[in-house]
Amino acid sequence: MKRHLPPLLFLFLLASTAVSAINHVNAETSSSAILRVNVERKISLLSGGYTMINDTFIFSNPEENGLKFTLTNYTLGVPKNYSEKLVYYEAYDGRGGLHITAFEDKGFKWLNLSFLEPIDLDCGEKYNFTVTLVFSGLIWRKTANLFYAVFPLYPSLTHEASFCNVTLILPSLAKLSENNYPRNIFVNKTVDFRILYNTTSFLPPYANYSSWVEFSDTTFKILRFLELKRELSIDSWGNIFATDFYELETVNVYSIDIILPSGATDISAYDAYGRYPKGRLDIVDKGYGTSVKIYLSEKLENSERIKVAVSYMLPSRKYIVMDGWQNYILNINITKPDVWIIYKVIASITLPEGASLTQGNPELNIETINPFQEKIILKRYNVTKFESLTLNVRYQYAIFWAALRPTFIAAIIVGSIIAILLSTKLTSRSEVPSPTPVSTETLKKFIEVCEEKVRITSEIEALEQQSMKGKISRKQYRLARKALEEQLSSLQKSFLDLKAKMEAAGRRYAEIIRRLEAIDTELEDIKRSMSDIETRYRLGEISAEERRNLHKEYESRREKAESIREEILLRLREEIL
């Protein structure tokens, strides 16, 4: 029995092995042992608080192999402690983007790349592609202008790489000293310490190494969009009212850029301290959306967590299409972020009263506002800047609903007028005028005090509005308000003296005093309620439509109360004549 294979048989087996390698090679198995893989990693710390890693993989088939290889796919990993911060990834070569399938295994998030078509590498040939990874939350502020960043030092592969060059690029205005980075890992080759290098030969498989750097920069920003709540409301005539509520994490941020749906008009911005003047907004229609730059108020500049609201209107002809005599389609791009990621997006659409959703969508939740009105809600997490979140809603709406509410209100008003007229007639028949039990001088003075109280109260409200709009300084506001409040206090003393005289004159005048005081109390409650509405709106607790409706309701109540007060004072004037 021979101990050695014949030379021809040995060559045949070797050729068979080569053919097998050509047919089955992929980047995770046999090719890694034969093809040479080099990696160029660039780590960039971006203003906004993001970390971008670009890995360029270079495959080379050395001449000495004497074989042709075919690549169909490739897999690289991100350690789990970093994959949770991964907000975006893509891969591409000279021909375009590569398809990526993600899965988790063995403490890594693996990205399996499928090439557009098999890559054939003859002896001496090379092929390269690039993978881009974007992370958020790997940079944070330690002190006022000192920032700390951590990052994965090397790519995680399933095989050994021949070498890996790492380049760490700091922001353009960052300052770095020798003690702000691990000198056993990085080498500095520049005067300003903004670019650090590391070279490693024979990178082992499943590498999971971290590194860090500290740098100072007075201009470096951290801007994270934590949540966007976009509330749309369609009224009975098809008008679309919208309000966006943004919650952000900010460091060194003095302005923010947001994208509204195309065609937005009547744009206003608010924060917890009030409405922004038009001069603090830059608005540009870019076709795909309306860009709004908001220059934040000074009160928010040092805050690290802020809330901003933007209200606007949208043209119905652009977003609502009629499909039949009572069927409608709302098609709108809910958001296309101008930042890398928005962590949470909540979109809601309040349909007109009488409308109902006709086409279901498993992503949508339906909330009933009242028996005749529905609200559609969509929630989405981790929406990136390259995603276009479009919402298509089909609903049914009969046009007669538009006239139903005005008709109902008109009926109530007519009924109220008739009831008042009947009541007036009955009262005029049964009530016999009686002589004035108080002096004309007392009545005249009482009316003057009441009217003066109304005038001063109105001046205080006007002063508050001027202060909120920035037309007068805080010092001027305080001095003027103090003077008016002193006048009001003096009038209140006179009112109490006259009140005692009026109440002593009999039940009728006591009832008049009671009604006037009840009106004053109601007006104070209305004023306080309207202030609460503005606070709730700025905090995002109510929508723009709810805010408008509540304002209308309280304005109506205030006008009615003031009208009743004026009527009472008019009756008292008649007694003087």
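Second entry:
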Amino acid sequence: MNADGGGHPGGPGRPPGARDPLAEAVPPAPPTGPATAGRPCAVVVGGGIAGLAAACALAERDVDVTVLEREPSLGGRLRGWATTLSDGSPATMTRGFHAFFRQYYNLRALLRRGDPGLGALVPLTDYPLVHRDGPRDRFSGLPATPPWNAAVLAATSPSFPPRDLARVNVPAALQLLDVDVPGVYERLDHLSARDLLDAVRFPPTARHLAFEVFTRSFFADPGLLSAAELAVMFHVYFLGSSEGLVFDVPGSPFPQALWDPLERYLAKRGVRLRTGARVEEVRRGRERRFTLRVRTPEGEAFGADADAVVLAADPGGVRALVAASPELGAPRWRDRMARVRTAPPFLVSRYWLDRPVRPHRPAFLGTAGHPTLDNVSVLERYEDEAREWARRTGGSVVELHAYALEEGCDPGYERDRLWDQAGTVYPELRGARAVDSRHELRADCPLFAPGGHRDRCGVTTPDPFVAVAGDHVRTDLPVALMERAATSGLLAANALLSRWGRPGHTVWTVPRRGRSAPLRALARWSRQPR
């Protein structure tokens, strides 16, 4: 977003807070419709990152905006809710750790609306990755600029022994340096991430630590993830950006750090935020173009009229809403929306323990080689609420993630198995007693399966006054995870603003192609038949 929401200015040609001189600005397209005489009205379905980004972008161009969110609070998969522990302590539960990378330009611009200096975020300068068999990698001390960051990592990491590096398939590995969006999907989307890693022949430990740890952050086994998504991911976080691999995390629970300030900002802009409001159908309206049928948890039903709609629900939610709205869109588009896929279940387990973990444990540890354990977080290392509880009780607040479980898995079994694996990583956990615990088993993240990119829905739809936003949406920009959600929300708003003859917002992105022209040329030469 451009800077009309406040915040520190960026450098010349850079978004606020960015250091990469090659960060790209994507200006909005010129308006395609005449300027509207009155104030248009838009309803945003979904109060997660994508929906809130769309709401901000629309409200800042004098659009009357209502956000309808089915959950009791804002934030989507980053929402939080109050709970009371068995010792009487108030606490905030969320769906787990999230990393706010410096190259999340549009997400960070969104958060600056409510927190201009991003004071609610605190940096984690390092996050170790540890394999069950012993190898360990770190990202501190690496150069920030590609390709030197990759070269130094390969030269200094124990995961890249020289004898194994000699087996690497260099032409296949070069494809990770020749990322251009959307062209990389034409070349690699038919392969799985596992297929690509098999072809590259990285050393086994490097494959686990430097690749599969990251692929599972897409909530899918590498065999179920598009190789193009893997290549784009490495471009965004490592090979295409000089922002580095360090990231920030909220220093307070998500509601206090992120959504309460943004909610205040939106309220000042006149945005109506209604939580606990499930949209059941979108139909053609009488007074305005659309009428939305909405129901509350208490069974109250009401209608919401709008000149335009942004569908910013999660994959399952938007799929169900389109299916329940036969007047929405054209048949081919509806068929594509029906095929939006959801990733396998993931589990977040948080424990309030009666004793501390060892002092040298990092705030965040990525793990590899375990059946299901993907990372361990020690919340008191960075979050004020957990830190206060640990100070008062002498304990620790530990969170475990399992990113890609089997469909139909048994929740109790998976919780026990995850705890047992954590005890092999941090042995002191075996002697700890849980004062309390909370567990979230969900399956509502998008799946980017091989061959799916061409069929993926984009921001625009057959109806120029219906747009789609979310981390499942195709943007044709090198973005991922939370940044894809924020970017798609901004692009959805731009599409509607253009129809109303109003200026849109600039989108920022890491470079849309590999940084080095000689390396790109070498990669393309290596693909030529001999």
